[in-house]
Structures are given as structure tokens and as C-alpha cells.
Design brief:
- The protein has six helices and 16 strands.
- About 25% of the residues lie in helices and about 25% in strands.
- The chain is of the alpha+beta class.
- The strands form two sheets. Strands 8, 9, 10, 11, 12, 13, 14, 15 and 16 form a nine-stranded mixed beta sheet that branches. Strands 1, 2, 3, 4, 5, 6 and 7 form a seven-stranded antiparallel beta sheet that branches.
- It has two domains: about 5-120, Aminotransferase class 4, branched-chain amino acid transferase, N-terminal domain (D-amino Acid Aminotransferase, Chain A, domain 1), CATH 3.30.470; about 125-280, Alpha-Beta Barrel (D-amino Acid Aminotransferase, Chain A, domain 2), CATH 3.20.10.10.
- The chain binds 4'-deoxy-4'-aminopyridoxal-5'-phosphate.
- 4'-deoxy-4'-aminopyridoxal-5'-phosphate binds near residues 162, 192, 216 and 250.
């Protein structure tokens, strides 16, 4: 992945992709002092760019890191990187981390670095699975309690749980894993939020210890526009047997139907398909009035 052509924006400058390196004593690598974003560009425009940039700043603040740029500067840098990379549709990855100027848990005077890399990532899951829905494992590790970790931050350290869970799921032949929270309630997937459908109504876990995803909020808005009832509540895994449809949503995953979670089966129904189409329409750049 590091041997590509193109450029990466790093601390205010464009550097060749292959030269965008960090030192092995980077604090972010040793102690997890990093936060990031995942955004998608459609038709040359980054969907909800400022919301993502604001979340990057909020995540950094939760990890006691002050980004040495403004939100507007990072927005502009994302747009300029997209232009230089020359993609209309692409995935955008801003990342912030503590540098290598100090070693140890405390590293108050390390530089806060920012980089933006953009590449083409057309489909997060196998597109041939969209008809039947992807298959999810149920992860062993749980989302931590907000008293245990900054669970609302898109922090690199929290993704350790996700990578372990996703690797385990993939080895068992699943596409991804659904994670419970520390109380045993249904939480989310390793990189996406989750929704269920029963009797024409939509149920989704209350995001009190995991990311309230930008896609999640967009899809809730689209569902409500169609007069669909969206219920945010605690969902127990035992309830999964009673749901008819399930789908997961995220910037990378967009709206992906789920066919199975462990022993539970779901059909890919009209409501899931409709919201998928609504979302794919919503992300397209709006034609500006002349
Ligand atoms: N949960 C996790 C763990 C994620 O990594 C993501 C992707 N950022 C989401 C939820 C969905 O967030 P968003 O819709 O803002 O991409």
C-alpha cells in the first residue's frame, strides 16, 4: 500500500506517496496516540466533509491533542489532495498522531502531525454478497464502557478491538463481526453502525458507547423523510431472532444488507434496498442552481 504513485498531504505540504513516512519511535505507534477519519468523495466532492473534519478535531481533543490547523484548513487540504490525486470517487483518510520527539507514556511536547491520504476503495464488502446480504460473526470482545475509554473518539487504539474481531470473523468465513457493548447489548460492527427492521419499523442501538456515525445519522434522516419510524433503543442479542431485515451503514460500507448474524437469518427486503438507493442518491453532489 505504501508503494503507490501520487501524493499525500503531510503537515501542510504535499509529499510523494512513497516518501510519506514516520520514525519507529513515533508516539502514536507505541501508545496509540492517534485519531483518524474515513470519508468518501463522490463525483469530485467529499460527502459531509466539514462534519468529518469536525469529528477529527473532537476526537483529537478527547485524546488531549491540539491539531495545529483550523477545520477550514483541513477541509481545504482534503479538497486539494483529492484534486491532485485526480479521482472523482475515492476514500479520504485524514490521520492525526503524536510524533517521535519524546518517548514514554507522557509526551506533552511531541508534535501533533496531520496527514491526508486518498485512494480508490470502490467496495468495502464483496459486491456479489449484496443480493443475499453479508454474513456477520458475533465478536468476543465488546465495546468498552465510556468510563473505560474515550469510546466516542475515532481513536486508532479502539480499532485494535475491531481488527482482532474482524480477523477472527474472516477466518471463520464471515465478512465481518457484530460487536456487543460492555453491558451485552448490540453495539455496532467493526467499521459500521447497525440497523434492524421489524414490522416496517427500524430499530437501531442508542449510540452511547460507540460512534454515532455520520452515515447512521444520514440514513435515519432519509428513513424519516419516507415517514418510516426509527427507534433508537437498547437491543439485546436474543432479540435478533425477531428481526426480519438487517443492514449496516458507514462511510466505507455505505448501506450493506446483512443476511446472517451467527445463527440468526435475515432477508434482504425492500426497505433495506430502498434506503441503500436513497443513500447512494444522497451522497451524489447536488447540482447547484445557476
Ligand atoms: N463505527 C465504527 C467502529 C466505524 O469505524 C465507523 C466508520 N467510521 C462507523 C461506526 C460509521 O461511521 P461513519 O458513518 O461516520 O463513517
Amino acid at each position: 500500500f505504501d508503494q503507490r504513485e501520487g501524493v499525500i498531504w503531510m503537515n501542510g505540504e504535499f509529499v510523494p506517496w512513497k516518501d510519506a513516512k514516520v520514525h519507529v519511535l513515533t508516539h502514536g505507534l507505541h501508545y496509540g496516540s492517534g485519531v483518524f477519519e474515513g470519508e468518501r468523495a463522490y463525483g469530485g466532492e467529499i460527502f459531509k466533509l466539514t462534519e468529518h473534519t469536525q469529528r477529527l478535531f473532537d476526537s483529537a481533543e478527547m485524546l488531549d491533542m491540539k491539531i495545529p490547523f483550523t477545520v477550514a484548513e483541513i477541509d481545504a487540504a482534503c479538497r486539494e489532495t483529492l484534486k491532485r490525486q485526480g479521482f472523482a470517487d475515492a476514500y479520504v483518510r485524514p490521520i492525526v498522531w503524536r510524533g517521535s520527539e519524546m518517548m514514554g507514556v507522557a509526551a506533552q511536547n511531541t508534535k501533533i502531525n496531520v496527514a491526508i491520504a486518498i485512494w480508490q476503495w470502490p467496495s468495502y464488502f464483496d459486491p456479489t454478497q449484496l443480493e443475499k446480504g453479508i454474513r456477520l460473526d458475533i465478536a468476543e470482545f465488546r465495546r468498552p464502557d465510556p468510563m473505560t475509554a474515550p469510546s466516542k473518539a475515532k481513536a486508532v487504539g479502539l480499532y485494535m478491538i475491531c481488527t482482532i474481531s474482524k480477523h477472527k470473523a474472516e477466518r471463520k468465513g464471515y465478512a465481518d463481526a457484530m460487536m456487543l457493548d460492555w453491558r451485552g447489548q448490540v453495539a455496532e460492527c467493526t467499521g459500521a453502525n447497525i440497523f434492524f427492521v421489524k414490522n416496517g419499523e427500524i430499530h437501531t442501538p442508542t449510540p452511547d458507547c460507540f460512534l454515532d456515525g455520520i452515515t447512521r445519522r444520514t440514513v435515519i434522516g432519509l428513513a424519516q423523510k419516507r415517514q418510516l419510524k426509527v427507534i433508537e433503543r437498547a437491543i439485546m442479542p436474543e432479540e435478533l431472532a425477531g428481526f426480519e431485515q438487517c443492514f449496516i451503514v458507514g462511510t466505507a460500507a455505505e448501506v450493506t444488507p446483512v443476511g446472517e448474524i451467527g445463527p440468526y437469518k435475515f432477508s434482504v427486503g425492500d426497505l433495506t434496498r430502498t434506503l441503500r438507493v436513497d443513500y447512494l442518491n444522497e451522497v451524489q453532489p447536488k447540482k447547484k442552481a445557476a
